[in-house]
Each structure stands twice: as structure tokens, then as C-alpha cells.
Design brief:
Largest sheet of chain A: 2 strands, antiparallel
Order of helices and strands of chain A: HHEEHHHHHHHHHHHH
Number of strands of chain B: 0
Largest sheet of chain B: none
CATH topology of chain A: MetI-like fold
CATH superfamily of chain A: MetI-like
Largest interface: A-B, 107 and 109 residues
Oligomer: heterotrimer
Shape of chain A: flat
Number of helices of chain A: 14
Chains: A mainly alpha (294), B mainly alpha (302), C alpha/beta (441)
Number of strands of chain A: 2
CATH class of the largest domain in chain B: Mainly Alpha
Helix content of chain A: over 70%
Radius of gyration of chain A: 23 Å
Number of helices of chain B: 14
Distance between the termini of chain A: 35 Å
Chain lengths: 294, 302, 441
């Protein structure tokens, strides 16, 4: 039996296409790019070897510090908000709306379909301050609150970005998590109900632990997506006001292709990759500990 | 990955018990009203922007600039934005290109990804954990990083000027998530099924096609759906690897309505987006029905 | 969230793999010029004449296409024009990638900033267009003002073609000015006084696109040219002066003062190009600093509610006691075109000659665009406003550039992204200037 499920030829046959494409198109270019971190220059003027200068520069560059801080803050807040909201929605679908949730599920998922260009245009209009007030400010005015210049300060821009991304992606995470929740056997829930667990206790002690794998995947997926936020920032705030909402990805893109410093751009990309790696490992570790406890 | 496996024997009972669950909630009318309000609120949050989008697609540039965001358009029969989107915007060409790149890439990603997921999760061999992690790590590297090397590679292979670079890149970039998710799904398929099939003398390739694939059919639809929207909405890769108008995909095409100094033709842009969105919505609804049907029937998890 | 990428586990082998890959890349980019097939040989038969366009710019494409079926029919027969496009945002990236492969198109926009063309030229990739035109005896096809602007822009060399020639200054709403009893300002103090009077009567003095930033930073640059003289920013580029010197900071201070007084309206940072243009063209703002490329908007009655004959133009006003004069119009050459040496075969050479002779007239006739080429054909029917700008250009002998013209791309980005913060008082003038100075490198 082992010999069939361990058949080397079959394993090769099944794995080879994916591994080949993946290695050629992703792994090799990544290492290739990482090689640039010890060089200076660009494709026009050629490259010259600079050793670890690019890496050293990362530590002293205020632009990198600002972008790193923004990226981390943004990813943590957005992941927390969008996964939590997605999870609440998924709970709502499974335990409250039940079969009726089909239409809602479809519609709440819908914003993911919209192109970034459209969503950012919409949010710019919603939060408009000048030359005339957008709907959000008009509503604030009704309640006697003065209009806010949403894109004028870094704090409010940050929150509009968070709000826009949450609006776009909560339905997506809801569907992802829903898939994990419907899979919890009704018997397990039923027997805990009989044992007197209900409401929050049921969710906390039964539902969350049982949906942990898919919750974990969602968090990892979300953190890796949000650490690499790109189009939305470009389209909504263009990194502004000033450079206060510029994430590492945008800085990297500008540095490599805008300023023609490909080596330094690769160093920034390396920093971002390390960040993703560390955060992912951290989530794995902490979740494993929790699970063994539970 | 730590995964809790639920006892699979319990699974067939899902259908019966969920029926009893519904009966219970129907007994509380107050709760039902609350649900309706909640659902309505959700719909409002999602639909209001859609209304804005559709209204905007009928507005002229000066209406867009000089009237409030949610003012009704002057004319609902002014389709000039739509004709501009289709003729000046070459929307037809762009949609065709998007379809010609996204669907082949999607097919290949899913085929390769499911096979790899099967090999990594069902088959028994040394080093599979490492390979799985290697794939997982692929979710982490920023996409901007592979652009310059890939451009060089495609150029050397004389692939620039065709849609192939897009198809190849999309296939590769979809793989990490697909492999990772498929491995997770295969994990929840009871191993006994494969072991029994092995005892019956089925070869592994046969097992893959006649047992593995059907068991995760719904999961495949879910993954395909997720991948579809990522690829369909891709801008970065499409921008880098298309240099002629004939190769442009829909997302890059949407940029055509922006001028050199940052000016935007709002009407045609929104009309093009509307056409794009409703097109994808049809695809989504079609796929969604299949996915959800499978899910609620309580067959293999999705 | 759209771009998801690839993988890395940082292992010991990184440097080995990378070094190998790099060696590969290095070898290949040098010998690739030759492997590009028939079109790269400079002698003998000619390949097609490829033009890589900004996707956003349809004017040049349209003009070249009209030439190909009209004045340059013969050139097009031997070397057919082929147009490809690339959005502006990713254009510099694309040019870098193509240059690295020795695969530049025959003719292309010289990048989003002059630095792109400068580094291409340094690497020996560009045709010395000025010399070639001289060899063809067509050097007079480029008008002197455009030639001088190009030379100021590209370290005294002229390897680009001026497909536009734009002058910049303040456009003002004549009706509003007459009603308020004001006259077009000729000095900076007048400008401030006018703005103050307009604001007092409830009219927003200036419309400005603070979102893109450059319309604001150009005010800073113009003030520097007027107060410190036409070579003041060349001095910064040469390193003999710094933007943090008091004279330069004063310019930023003056623009910040306009913002502080509320002359740009509220939250100038969230006004984009289209909105600013619309504010001026619907009479909601009295003045608008912009280049003459906006004439196509001004001449379009659908956009222009106030009427084209209601718009007046004044050069950036003089600064009392300053070294510069208001006669020195701020000018640029729009999207200048460069040509790749590797594709400069006989066909491309013939095209260059034909473009030099005919582009000016064709651009004016097809799109009403004023170029830096001599118009070798008495053009008909130019709108009055365009005509008056043409006259202004004809009477201009000295031009100045704009604030970021000689900056590195990084300093340009810094200058433009922070300009709105300067105007809204969130960044002090000295901080603004020292940020840019730091990025000049």
C-alpha cells in the first residue's frame, strides 16, 4: 500500500508541472533580484558592485523608516479589522441568516469584483471636502459636526484607506471563513448546546477552535496581502499627504523604476519579504501554542 | 500547518441537523426582524456605491464635476459614455485579451495546483513539508521584485509582443495560493478512501482523477473564483508585459481614460467599469451558484 | 492586494545563484544589441519605424499617423510607422527594461523626467538629433526658443525633438477682473494685492491642482527665477547654491503665504487637475497658473463655460528688485521625442527629415498644438486665443525652465508630493526646501 501512495514516478508526474513553473517564473527571478541588492545602478547605465551598502542604507534612510512604520501599522490594523469583520459576517451567515444568506453572501462579496480605479474614485467622492462637501461630510454636518478634510492629514487618510480596503474585502474573507464554518459538524454544536453552552461561550470554546485552520489561513493571507498593499494607495492617496501614506511597495517601485536605483529597490523588497516571513512565522508559532493549550 | 481534523464519520449527518436548526430560529419572530434589519443594512452598505457607479456612467463630465456625488443624471438615455467606452476605449479588444489570458492561466494554475496539492498532501514521501513551505513562501514576496528578471527572460525567449508572458506569469503567480489551499482541502478528505482504493488496486493517477479530483470539486470552484478575481484585477503585471494596444487587458485599458496631466474622463471611465463589473458579476453568479450548491449540500468541504 | 508574488527562503546559496544570474544578465545585455535581428543594422535595408507612445498622449501619435499618410508617405512606404503605447506611470520602467535589452523603439518620449534621457544619452543609446539635422541641412526647422529650452534642459545638448512648445503663466478671467476693478498683475506685489481684493469680494483667487503638486511647486520655481535670476536653479544643479539658502527659501515662503491667506481655496491638496481646470473654466476661480497646452481645454466650449475670449494671459509677474524679468517666459517642450541609435537606419533618418519639415504644420492643423518646429505651411483657422499665445511666443527670446527641470527624479517626487503640504502650512518653507535639497544628492 505504501508503495502506491509513495510511488516516486507518480509524485514526480503530479508535482513536476507546478514546481517547474513556480521555480522558473518565481523562485529564480526572486533570487536574481536579490542578487541586485549588492549592486548599484540600473538597466540603462549598468550595474556596479557596492557590497552591503544598500542594506546599510536601509537602516539610516528616513523614507524607509516612515514607509516601514506605515506598512506595519496598516497591515496590522487592516488585518485585524477585515478578518474580524469577515468572521463576524461568516458567523452571521452560518448561525443567524442560515440558508437565506445566499443572496447576502453574494452581494457582500461583490465589492471585490470592482477595479481599484473605480473603488478609489468612489471613496474620493464620498469623502470629498473641497471644492464641495461629499456625502460623508454632509452627513456629519447634519449632526452639527464640522466638515473634515479627510485627505488633508495623514491620520484621516490612513483611516479612509482602512475603511476602503475593509469595505472591499470583508465579503471576500466572509466567504473564505464561511467555507470553514459550514464544515463544523452540527452534532458537535448540538452536543455542546445540550451541555449548556450558548452564544458567546459556544463561539469561543467550540466554533473558534474548530475553525482555527481556516481562520489562520485567512490571517496569513490577509497579512501578506496588506503588507504588500500597492494599487489602492496609488489610486486613493498616491502616498499623500506628503509621503505619509507611502508603503514599502510604493517606495520600492519608485526607487527601482522611478529613480533608477534597482539595487536599493531590491534591498527594500528584501526588507519587505523578511517582514512577511517574520510575521507569518510568528503567527504560526503563536497559533500552534494556543491550539495545544486548547 | 496545524489543522484540526474533525471526525469525518459525522459528516453525513450535517443535512438533517441543519434543518432542525432552522426550525428553531424561526420560532423567534423578534429575532427574525432583527435579522432582516441587519441584512438590509448590509445590502445598503454594498449597494449604495453601486448606485453611484451606475448613475455616474450616465453623467456628462460637467454634471460629474459640478453636481453633488449622488445627484441623479440629467438623462438616463444618454448612452454616449457607453459608446465612447466601447469605441474610443477599445473595450472589446481589452475584454478579449483579458479572457484570453486569465482563463488559460486559471485552467493551468488549477490543474497544476491541484496535482501538486494531491502529491503534497495525499502521497507519502520525504521532504514534502519543505516543498509545501517553499510554495507557501511564494505568497510573501512582493510582485514588483520579479518584474525585471522576468522581462529579461521573456525578451530572450522572444515572447514579448504576445500574450504568452501574461499567461505564464499569471499561472505561476496563482500557484502558491492554489497549492497551499488545495493541500489544505485534501487534508480534510479521509485518508481511508485512498487507502481502500489502493487495496482495490487503483493506480495513483487513476485515484487522482477518479477520486481526488471529484472529492475536491467544490473546493476547486472556490479557489478558481478567488484566483479569477485576483488575475482579472491585476494591473502591475499587465502594465509591465503589454506594450501594444492590441495586447492590453481590461484593467490597463481603464487607464486610457486618464490623460497625460492627470485629467480623467469620468463618464466613459465609469461606463467602462460598469460594463466590466456587470460582466464579471455574471461570471461570479454562475460560479457562485455551483460553489454554494456544493457547500450547502454538505458534501466535501469547500 | 492584487500583486502577490513569489517566494523566498533566504538560504546560504543566495549570493551564488544571484551572481550567476547577474553574470548572465551582464553578458546578455551587451551582446543583445546585435541579436535583435535585421532592424538593428544601421546600413542597408530599413526596418519599420517604431514609435512607443505615452498611452495618455494621443496628440503625437495622431500627428505621426497623419504624416505617415500625407507628407511622409514615401518615408512610410520604405519604413512603415508602427505605434505601440505604454501608460505614463510605467513608462520610465519600460524604457529602462527595453534599454537593458537593447530593444529601444526607433522614436519615443524622452521619459517622465529629463534624467531618463540624460542617462540614456550617457550610455550612448541616443541619436544626436541636432547634429543629424545639421547634416541634413534642416537645423532651422527647430525654432530658436525651443532649441534654447532643450539645451537648458539637457545640459546644453539637443538630442530631442520639441513636439510641443508650451509657455506657462497666469491665465485670468477678464470679466471677474473688470468687475472687481483690477488689472492683470505685472509684479508679485500686484498679484498678492489682486488676490487679496478678490478674496475680499468672495471669489477664490487661484485654482490649483495641489494633488499632483507641480502647479504649486512651479510657483516656487518661477519666483526663484524672478528674484534670483534665470540661472538660479542651474546654480543649484551645479552645486554652487543650495535650496536652503535664504533667497530660495524666501520663494517657498511666498507661496506658503498665498496658501496661508487662503488664496487657493480650501484644502488645495485634494484638488486634482480636472477639478482645478473646471474651477477656472466655470468662473469659480479668477486665476489659474497653467501651461499653454491647456488651450485645447480653453477652446472647447463644452468645458469652457466662461468663454475663450474671456481668458487673458500674463507671464509670471516680476519680483520688485529681483534679478529676473517678466519677459523670460517659463517654457517647456511638452513630451520631447528621442531616437534610439540602434534603430537609426536609413528609413529612420528619412523620417527624421520629414518630421522636422512637416510636424509643426501637421500638429497645428490636426490638434491645434503649438510645437517647437517651424510651421512650414501657412496654417489656417487658428482660434484667437491660440493665435495670441503664438504671438507671445514669437516675441519671446529668453525662456526659463520650471522648478524641477534639473532635479533628479527623487528630488522631483519630493518637491511635488510635498508642495500641497507647503501651501497648506503643514510643512514649513525651510523644511520643504531642505527635504528637496537632501534628495538632490
Amino acid at each position: 500500500m505504501k508503495s502506491v501512495l509513495g510511488d516516486r514516478r507518480a509524485i514526480f508526474l503530479l508535482l513536476a508541472p507546478a514546481l517547474t513553473v513556480y521555480s522558473l517564473i518565481i523562485l529564480i527571478p526572486v533570487f536574481w533580484s536579490l542578487g541586485y541588492t549588492v549592486f548599484e545602478g540600473n538597466a540603462i547605465n549598468g550595474f556596479s558592485f557596492v557590497g552591503l551598502d544598500n542594506i546599510k542604507q536601509l537602516f539610516s534612510d528616513p523614507d524607509v523608516h516612515q514607509a516601514l512604520w506605515f506598512t506595519v501599522r496598516f497591515a496590522l490594523v487592516l488585518t485585524a479589522v477585515q478578518v474580524a469583520l469577515g468572521y463576524l459576517l461568516a458567523l452571521l451567515y452560518v448561525f443567524v441568516l442560515r440558508k437565506a444568506s445566499n443572496l447576502i453572501r453574494t452581494l457582500v462579496f461583490f465589492p471585490v469584483v470592482l477595479p481599484t480605479v473605480a473603488v478609489s474614485l468612489l471613496f474620493q467622492q464620498l469623502f470629498e471636502y473641497a471644492p464641495r462637501n461629499g456625502p460623508v461630510n454632509s452627513i456629519l454636518n447634519v449632526f452639527g459636526i464640522p466638515s473634515v478634510d479627510w485627505f488633508g492629514t495623514s491620520t484621516s487618510s490612513f483611516w479612509v484607506l482602512i475603511l476602503m480596503e475593509t469595505w472591499r474585502s470583508m465579503g471576500f474573507y466572509a466567504v473564505l471563513l464561511y467555507a470553514g464554518l459550514v464544515d463544523i459538524p452540527e452534532e458537535v454544536l448540538e452536543s455542546s448546546r445540550l451541555d449548556g453552552a450558548s452564544g458567546l461561550r459556544l463561539v469561543r470554546h467550540i466554533v473558534i477552535p474548530l475553525s482555527m485552520p481556516v481562520l489562520l489561513s485567512s490571517i496569513i493571507f490577509s497579512i501578506n496581502g496588506t503588507l504588500k498593499i500597492f494599487d489602492s494607495v496609488i489610486a486613493l492617496t498616491n502616498g499623500g499627504p506628503g509621503t505619509s501614506t507611502t508603503p514599502l511597495t510604493v517606495l520600492m517601485f519608485q526607487t527601482s523604476f522611478g529613480y533608477g536605483e534597482y539595487g536599493y529597490g531590491s534591498a527594500i523588497a528584501l526588507l519587505l519579504t523578511m517582514l512577511c516571513l517574520i510575521v507569518t512565522i510568528f503567527i504560526f508559532r503563536s497559533s500552534r501554542r494556543d491550539l495545544t493549550k486548547a | 500547518m496545524t489543522v484540526i481534523q474533525h471526525p469525518s464519520e459525522l459528516r453525513p449527518a450535517v443535512k438533517a441537523s441543519s434543518v432542525s436548526g432552522r426550525r428553531r430560529s424561526a420560532r423567534r419572530p423578534m429575532r427574525t426582524i432583527g435579522n432582516v434589519v441587519l441584512a438590509a443594512l448590509l445590502l445598503l452598505i454594498v449597494l449604495v456605491p453601486l448606485v453611484w457607479l451606475v448613475m455616474g456612467s450616465f453623467k456628462t463630465q460637467s454634471e460629474f464635476l459640478n453636481n453633488p456625488a449622488f445627484a441623479l443624471p440629467d438623462s438616463w438615455t444618454n448612452f454616449s459614455n457607453y459608446s465612447a467606452a466601447i469605441t474610443e476605449g477599445h473595450l472589446g479588444t481589452y475584454v478579449r485579451n483579458s479572457i484570453l489570458t486569465v482563463f488559460p492561466a486559471l485552467f493551468l494554475t488549477i490543474l497544476f495546483g491541484v496535482a501538486a496539492g494531491f502529491a503534497l498532501e495525499v502521497m507519502v514521501w520525504k521532504g514534502r513539508g519543505t516543498v509545501l513551505i517553499a510554495f507557501l513562501a511564494g505568497i510573501m514576496v512582493p510582485g514588483q521584485m520579479i518584474l525585471l528578471p522576468l522581462f529579461t527572460i521573456y525578451f530572450k525567449l522572444h515572447l514579448t509582443g504576445t500574450l504568452l508572458p501574461l499567461i505564464i506569469t499569471y499561472t505561476a503567480i496563482g500557484l502558491p495560493l492554489t497549492v497551499f489551499m488545495m493541500a489544505t482541502f485534501f487534508r480534510s478528505v479521509p485518508r481511508e478512501i485512498f487507502e481502500a482504493a489502493t487495496l482495490d488496486g487503483a493506480t495513483i493517477v487513476r485515484q487522482f482523477f477518479s477520486i481526488g479530483l471529484p472529492m475536491v470539486r467544490n473546493a476547486i470552484f472556490t479557489v478558481a473564483l478567488v484566483q479569477f478575481f485576483f488575475l482579472w484585477n491585476d494591473l502591475l503585471i499587465a502594465l509591465t508585459f503589454t506594450s501594444s494596444d492590441d495586447l492590453r487587458t481590461i484593467q490597463v485599458g481603464l487607464l486610457n481614460f486618464q490623460g497625460q496631466f492627470g485629467q480623467i474622463e469620468y463618464g466613459p471611465t465609469l461606463a467602462a467599469i460598469c460594463l466590466n463589473v456587470f460582466g464579471t458579476l455574471v461570471i461570479y453568479l454562475f460560479l457562485n451558484k455551483r460553489v454554494m450548491k456544493g457547500l450547502t449540500a454538505g458534501s466535501v468541504k469547500g | 492586494m492584487l500583486q502577490r508574488g513569489s517566494k523566498t527562503r533566504v538560504i546560504a546559496g543566495v549570493s551564488i545563484v544571484a551572481a550567476g544570474a547577474l553574470a548572465l544578465a551582464a553578458c546578455s545585455s551587451s551582446d543583445d544589441n546585435a541579436t535583435d535581428g535585421s532592424s538593428s543594422s544601421t546600413a542597408g535595408k530599413s526596418g519599420s519605424f517604431t514609435y512607443l507612445s505615452f498611452a495618455e498622449n494621443t496628440a503625437i501619435k495622431g500627428t505621426l499617423e497623419s504624416l505617415s499618410s500625407d507628407a511622409c508617405k514615401d518615408e512610410n512606404a520604405s519604413s512603415p510607422l508602427k505605434v505601440t503605447t505604454q501608460p505614463q506611470a510605467s513608462f520610465d520602467q519600460q524604457i529602462q527594461l527595453l534599454a537593458g535589452q537593447g530593444a529601444l523603439p526607433s522614436i519615443f518620449p524622452a521619459g517622465n523626467s529629463p534624467d531618463v534621457a540624460k542617462s540614456l544619452d550617457k550610455a550612448g543609446n541616443l541619436v544626436q538629433i541636432g547634429d543629424e539635422l545639421k547634416a541634413l541641412g534642416k537645423q532651422d526647422d527647430i525654432i530658436p526658443a525651443a532649441k534654447s529650452t532643450i539645451e537648458k534642459l539637457y545640459d546644453g545638448k539637443d538630442y530631442v525633438l520639441p513636439t510641443e512648445f508650451n509657455v506657462e503663466g497666469f491665465w485670468y478671467n477678464k470679466e471677474i477682473f473688470t468687475k472687481a476693478g483690477l488689472e492683470a498683475p505685472t509684479t508679485w506685489d500686484d498679484l498678492v494685492k489682486d488676490a487679496d481684493a478678490l478674496k475680499a469680494s468672495g471669489i477664490q483667487p487661484f485654482a490649483a491642482d495641489g494633488k499632483d503638486g507641480w502647479p504649486l511647486s512651479r510657483l516656487v520655481g518661477n519666483y526663484i527665477y524672478r528674484s534670483l535670476g534665470a540661472d538660479a536653479l542651474q546654480a543649484v544643479a551645479d552645486g554652487t547654491a543650495k535650496l536652503t539658502d535664504s533667497g530660495y527659501v524666501e520663494a517657498a515662503q511666498k507661496v506658503a503665504d498665498l496658501g496661508k491667506a487662503g488664496y487657493f481655496g480650501k484644502s488645495v491638496g485634494s484638488i486634482d487637475y480636472t477639478t482645478a481646470m473646471n474651477q477656472f473654466l466655470t468662473g469659480k476661480a479668477a486665476m489659474y497658473y497653467m501651461g499653454s497646452w491647456a488651450l485645447s481645454n480653453f477652446n472647447d466650449p463644452k468645458q469652457n463655460v466662461i468663454g475663450a475670449d474671456n481668458i487673458g494671459f500674463v507671464p509670471f509677474p516680476a519680483v520688485t528688485g529681483g534679478k529676473g524679468s517678466a519677459d523670460e517666459l517659463a517654457a517647456n517642450v511638452g513630451v520631447p521625442l528621442a531616437m534610439a541609435k540602434s534603430k537609426f537606419d536609413d528609413g529612420a533618418k528619412a523620417w527624421l527629415g520629414c518630421i522636422a519639415d512637416n510636424y509643426g504644420a501637421a500638429a497645428l492643423n490636426t490638434g491645434g498644438v503649438i510645437t517647437g518646429f517651424k510651421v512650414n505651411d501657412d496654417s489656417t483657422d487658428v482660434p484667437a486665443l491660440t493665435k495670441s499665445v503664438q504671438d507671445t511666443i514669437a516675441h519671446t527670446s529668453n525662456t526659463v525652465l520650471w522648478f524641477e527641470a534639473l532635479f533628479s527624479p527623487k528630488a522631483t517626487t519630493t518637491s511635488q508630493t510635498n508642495a500641497a503640504l507647503l501651501a497648506t502650512g503643514q510643512l514649513s518653507p525651510s523644511d520643504y526646501m531642505s527635504k528637496i535639497q537632501a534628495d538632490l544628492g
